[in-house]
Design brief:
Layout (H helix, E strand, L loop, with lengths): L13 H16 L1 H4 L7 E6 L5 H12 L3 E5 L13 H11 L2 E6 L4 H8 L4 E6 L5 H15 L5 E6 L6 H10 L5 E6 L8 H10 L3 E4 L4 H4 L4 E4 L10 H7 L7 H5 L6 E3 L20 H19 L8
Parallel strand pairs: 1-2, 1-3, 3-4, 5-6, 5-8, 6-7, 8-9
The structure holds N-carbamoyl-L-aspartate.
The site of N-carbamoyl-L-aspartate has 11 residues, from helix 3 and helix 7.
Length: 310
């Protein structure tokens, strides 16, 4: 089987994405069938940037498949602190593990790793760029809870500039029929122009608004909230000015559509008030569970173990 990596959600065709999501659903309903699919396999999680969910989710995914996990979650305790390059690190990790998930503050670092790797490399978030496995998670959540990936109006709210989950989700959902985006952000945190240019090229309808109110939410099937990405700001002052720009609370939910689901890649800071957690439309904790199934399906796909007879 040819070596495959996942840098961007577009590395998977629409057909492959749908197949992967079908596999994730099968995993959800038949956990036992997959419990030994990766016996003897190892995933290396190389996290040069903080993470709770994504790293644990990859490790849990591999363990659920019968495999094991190794890696580091603090670059300062690895040889990186001695000056080792990503290229060298991946060369040796290729000798220890069968597949690798890498998170890095620099855009493109996992891509560099993939060029020197002899095992599949998964981009687990590179700077403000892409986060394809969060997108698979998000798509599985949307498809499971809304029943479709077509004919949807998706609102994305918060830090659309630095939010890599937003960029990946827009790119991937833009390939489905009749998708519209409502981009809700302060002027300073609008989506990068390369993302809007792509939407224009593909003829995807979108509008950019500032207020998160009844008028903005009225047609939404999904409201995707995001954290203001503190670590990507150049100065504290700008961050402080932006951080509480949006707070989704019970009062806002009261004027939102009855069937609008609320998603968030987590961690949340103040952008969703805890009182919203008990609203049946709050989907962000379910999203975490879907993330494990999506990553299990991805690991199987990249290792060529997605078919029973292999
Ligand atoms: C996101 C990320 O790392 O980009 N988190 C995650 O992977 N679940 C979102 C964020 O950090 O705000």
């Amino acid at each position: 089987m040819a070596l495959r990596h996942l840098m961007s959600p577009l590395d998977l065709s629409v057909e492959e994405t749908n197949r992967l999501l079908d596999l994730a659903v099968d995993i959800e309903h038949n956990r036992d069938k997959y419990a030994h699919r990766c016996d003897g396999k190892k995933i290396a999680t190389l996290f040069y940037e903080p993470s709770t969910r994504t790293r644990l989710s990859f490790e849990a995914a591999m363990m659920n498949l019968g495999g094991k996990a190794l890696g580091f979650h603090d670059a300062s305790t690895s040889s990186v602190s001695k000056g080792e390059t990503v290229a060298d690190t991946i060369r040796l990790v290729s000798c220890y593990a069968d597949i690798c998930a890498m998170r890095h503050p620099k855009e493109g670092a996992p891509l560099v790793a993939s060029m020197y790797s002899t095992i599949p490399v998964i981009n687990a978030g590179d700077g403000g760029h892409q986060h394809p496995t969060q997108t698979l998670t998000d798509m599985l959540t949307i498809r499971s809870l809304k029943g479709r990936l077509e004919n949807l109006t998706i609102g994305l709210c918060g830090d659309l500039k630095f939010g890599r989950t937003v960029h990946s989700l827009i790119e991937s959902m833009s390939r489905y029929k009749n998708i519209r985006f409502v981009l809700i952000s302060p002027e300073e945190l609008r989506v990068p122009s390369y993302v809007t240019e792509e939407m224009k090229e593909k003829g995807i309808p979108y509008k950019e608004v500032i207020a998160l109110n009844e008028e903005t939410m009225k047609d939404l099937d999904v409201l995707y909230m995001t954290r203001v990405q503190k670590e990507r700001f150049f100065n504290e002052e700008d961050y402080v000015r932006m951080k509480d720009f949006y707070i989704l609370d019970a009062a806002k939910m009261a004027v939102a559509p009855k069937d609008m689901i609320v998603m968030h890649p987590l961690p949340r800071v103040n952008e969703i008030a805890p009182e919203v957690d008990k609203d049946p439309r709050a989907a962000y904790f379910k999203q975490v569970q879907y993330g494990v199934y999506a990553r299990m399906a991805l690991i199987l796909t990249l290792l060529g173990l997605d078919k029973e007879d292999k």
